[in-house]
Amino acid sequence: MSLLDVVGPVMVGPSSSHTLGVLRIARFVHKFMKGVPEKVKFVLHGSLADTGFGHGTDKALLAGIMGMRADDERIRDSIEIAKNVGLRYSFEIEDLGEVHPNTVLIIAWKNGKKVEVQGSSIGGGKIEINRINDCECQVNWEYHTLILVIKDLPGAIGNILENVSVNISNLYLKRIDAIERIAVAIVETDEEVKEECLEAIEKNSYVLEFYHVGRDEDAL
Amino acid sequence: MCWNFTMWGVMRMRFEDFINEEKRGRKLPDVILEREMRETGVPIELLRREMVKLLNVMLEESTKQYGKRQRTLSEMAGENGYLMANHRAKMLSEFSHTATTVALSLAESNAAMGRVVACPTGGACGIVPAVLYALKVHMNASMDELLNAFIVAGGLGWVIEKNATISGAEGGCQAEIGTAAAMASALLVYYFTHQGERCAHGAAIALKSMLGLVCDPVGGFVEVPCVKRNGIAVNIAISSAEMALAGIESVIPFDEVVEAMYRVGRSLPESLRETGMGGIATTPTARKIVMEMKKHKKFKW
Fold first, then answer.
1. Which of A71, B49, B135, B216 is in Cβ range 3.0-4.6 Å of B281 for a Cys bridge?
2. Is this prediction's ipTM beyond 0.90?
3. Under an 8 A CB cutoff, do B158 and A3 touch?
């Protein structure tokens, strides 16, 4: 943790793992889908399922999926707001297997597209996104984040990264299927990646799937 | 990305090192911010601005929530700040009365999903703002003075986080409310003396008096006994700071007290670390309250 993590952040109570963290996971999905979905299902696991009720976890998740920031005072009224904007939502409890006790799976639908994101609230408001659709990953969302499913071939990563003109802060690469020759790359940058770079990456022949989520404005 | 830097062995951090730097003629808040800059790469001026933002939110919310009735999630609390604000103190000084009211009010606001600064956590969010607000109201403290004292408190909490824990689930209430009390004590001592060594004594005395405190929230809610513990801990911070100002020293140095707190935390059984399965949470009355709650639709998914 940094000094600022110890003395902050500003949040809406009562608990950094049950409200702040889950709000950020839902807000990640909001940014990922570039807007409020038409329909959303929250699947709660472990401690979130056991003690989330009445803790405001439901309100925090809805607030996040509607794009509210962690210090938004409308969070406590988010159920009302969701109803007013016509967002269809449901909560379910399910054992998601060998995952962190504070884990939620968010399934959202927008414009005929379905997105599945699984994330864990790992304490102090910190999060880890551990699955996006079928792609397993580890994303803390403290940077501008590019998530790439790519061909596991010589020169692939170099070819793709040539398109990224800003400095890369962290790079993570892992083979996920040796027979199909598929790998996952996560690229984190301090500065925003330009729109034309993103388009070039999307068109790159080594790239099979590509997701981009800008850094949250809340993060320093 | 999840890089675990602790595996690579980070530079050790002791409050004593900060004090030694201060003894070489540097200002304690500068030493602390420089350390943060080294670790995160964030420029000092930006850090200072971020700290000012947090400080402003604390003071704003203290003013806004002071003595306000709150509708908390479980409704086990909500009136404490109001009652304290409307009570004429018989024994507490005006300073302590204000601080106690703020600590209760903010802890209740937190339980009602209000805006708080998690300093160091949501459950202990009332204590540091309480002394800041009391300094502003009763000592007419300037924003600059408050900021410097707040940075020192932050540095001290950071040392606890690095060498022990600030999570109730890991170390019990002593790690959350205890850390907040130590930070608030250091804040007060720095405001009056500008001497890091005395801050360490104040913080050590405060943390020692919170040692062993368990985390036992009724029904898992951050309300009982958390709200009142905020109100009490701020007075422990004030009295230990007063002792340090009088020249009283902690026999055991602060950094060693932090280690002791961690050892105590680790030896606490899981039932006393935020699980709601021990301590106050398992008393007959607590069980009854939780049973009643479970019948209520509001607490079901």
1. B216
2. yes
3. yes
- Cross-chain residue pair B122–A16, CB shorter than 8 Å: yes
Query: For an interface test with B, which of A1, A2, A3 has the most B Cβ atoms less than 10 Å from its Cβ?
Result: A3
Place of tokens 């300093």: B119
Please state which of the four CATH numbers 1.10.3720.10, 3.30.70.260, 3.40.640.10, 3.40.605.10 is assigned to the domain occupying A142-220.
Answer: 3.30.70.260
Strand pairing category for A88-93 and A39-44: parallel
Cβ contact B84:B70 at 8 Å = no
- Would the CB atoms of B73 and A140 count as touching at under 8 Å? no
CB–CB contact A170 B3 (8 Å): yes
| Three-class secondary structure of residue A174 per DSSP | strand
Structure tokens at A114: 């379905």
Distance CA A123, CA A121 (A): 6
Q: Is B113 within 8 Å of A14 when comparing Cβ atoms? A: yes
CATH 3.30.1330.90 fits A1-133, yes or no: yes
Give, for all 301 residues of chain B, the pLDDT tens digit.
Answer: 334 344 444 578 999 999 999 999 999 999 999 999 998 888 999 999 999 999 999 999 999 999 999 999 999 999 999 999 999 999 999 999 999 999 999 999 999 999 999 999 999 999 999 999 999 999 999 999 999 999 999 999 999 999 999 988 889 999 999 999 999 999 999 999 999 999 999 999 999 999 999 999 998 899 999 999 999 999 999 999 999 999 999 999 999 999 999 999 999 998 999 888 899 999 999 999 999 988 876 666 6
In total, the C-beta contacts within 8 angstroms joining chain A to chain B are 145
How far apart CA B281 and CA B268 sit, in angstroms, is 15
- The domain spans of chain A are 1-133, 142-220
* Angstrom distance (rounded) from CA B79 to CA B293: 19
Q: Where are the domains of chain B?
A: 26-293
Chain B hits for A53, Cβ within 8 Å: 299-301
